Amino acid sequence: MLRAAVPLVLFLAAAPLxxxxxxxxxxxxxxxxxxxxxxxxxxxxxxxxxxxxGALRIVQGGTLLATPALTFPASSICNASEQxxxxxxxxxxxxxxxxxxxxxxxxxxxGACVNRVSRFMLPDSNVVDPATELIxxxxxxxxxxxxxxxxxxxxxxxxxYISIGDGGCDWAGxxxxxxxxxxxxxxxxxxxxxxxxxxxxxxxxxxxxxxxGTARCNVTGQTTAGNKCREAFAWGLRNPFRIAFDPNFxxxxxxxxxxxxxxxxxxxxxxxxxxxxxxxxxxxxxTDTDNPCSQAPPGMVGPLFExxxxxxxxxxxxxxxxxxxxxAFVPNGLWPAFDGxxxxxxxxxxxxxxxxxxxxxxxxxxxxxxxxxxxxxIFGSHGSGGRALYYATFAGGGQVRKIFYEEAGNSLPVAAAxxxxxxxxxxxxxxxxxxGSSDPNAGDTLTYFWGFGDGTPEASxxxxxxxxxxxxxxxxxxxxxxxxxxxxxxxxxxxxILASAGPLDFHTAAPCRLVDTRSSGPALEAGxxxxxxxxxxxxxxxxxxxxxxxLAAISPASAGHLQIAPGGTAATPTSVLNFAAGQTRANNxxxxxxxxxxxxxxxxxxxxxxxxxxDVVGWFE
Length: 621
Known about the structure:
By secondary structure, the chain is an all-beta fold. It folds into three domains: 33-322, TolB, C-terminal domain (Neuraminidase), CATH 2.120.10; 418-500, Immunoglobulin-like (Sandwich), CATH 2.60.40.10; 506-620, Jelly Rolls (Sandwich), CATH 2.60.120. The protein has two helices and 46 strands. A hairpin with an 8-residue loop joins strand 36 (474-484) and strand 37. The relative contact order is 0.10.
């Protein structure tokens, strides 16, 4: 699944003879699953496993369910070479939406193969209805069957990130295959890139390629040469097989594991608009050489770590590691001496490695060996309240396994969570309290890990109390996990926090036109989103929290709808107005404002554009 030079027989690799991990760690079988490609957890603890042939499997309560949640018909999926069902992600709002996202290689009528990302609904019955499919990105080229990438992850910003390879051979047929393939240089085609979209398939407002000279590529996989695809977040990648997001970072931070050609594997920092140089460079070198890259494009972002084929990875004793695969950041505080570490795997040498940095260059160290053909890895729940590194391997016909840390003879601590206040108006500052937590082992010391339930990173402290401020309305579950000095975690304890917006006063305003794209232009194009300022004009003060408006869709090119969401958030937009082609329609709406006083309008139409007018008649504060 990684490169044309890797024989397909590796997919049938035998079980590792003797998997080895460091002292204190245990490697154990979770489930035997044929040809596993990707893993994801639902909030209720179900482990989703995709398989290359086209089945979505579920592990629930430690048991692999006998019946797949979804199986793609053989007539609708290509699964030869490196194609197939390759990626899965779970909606951050899964508890409400039940949405899961799948990346697979679709077989078109006539037999052509293209890569596709779709959204489905996964109910408690663990049976996905194929009719719930909503295609979000389609017709990403797969001309040679390899280099499809296929990873899916949500960032902390709430957006869906997608990795897509260069297709192995040039989709246009004008440059060649392997090193000469320049498809990743084509900004008008969805090849050799990281994509970013909303969970409904729209374009985030801060995607790097927008405005004049850009277009949506989600339907055809490309646009006119010379233009740029709005879905593109970063480019110049060969086969960004796996991407991994840092749970310890307050914003969205991720690394890209890009499979190399004949010489170097690389790990790149995910950055908006970044060009990583392929096919002009392989890592920081000229392609297929050891020479520094003399033809690097302007502003190229180089790898933060790379390693040479047929040589030991620097800092390790592992040689013949020629194809980078999965990656995962270690949650801080989980394992001794692993804070800030990044784990990555290699398909060819069957190892998992630790990458760390003390503020300088990143350095690698051996972690696990003889693990078979590792394809992916993520951290997920283990035991009472701990976490384990779950990974998929083609060893033994296909397995999902996990690695966890545990000291023999140690008893688990006990968590007891409380808060000084459990409800109030925004901003709501709460002092969370771990008093009452304990450990049955005399002399053990405790560290307290608090999850706040509002999307901010988990925080740890050795103090019994920790303050946190909730800034958005909602009901949140604060979760306490207690860890002793042997790195054993307690069963979690929780406390619910209700943060309300509080009563708002309504102020009437003389009708005033706040937005009219006919004069401030341009029209909103199909599938696009645009931010508008809701304060500072029409007498609306900066303290306004919401607006009462009349929203109009003017001269739409096709039937569709308009959606509205607060600015600066990844909230799912609310549909407020439907219209037919050529029909000017208006509707009253309540518009919530973001913290910057702005709001977003999304044009939900399949083609063409629509003008928008917004008349404000009052505000709430």
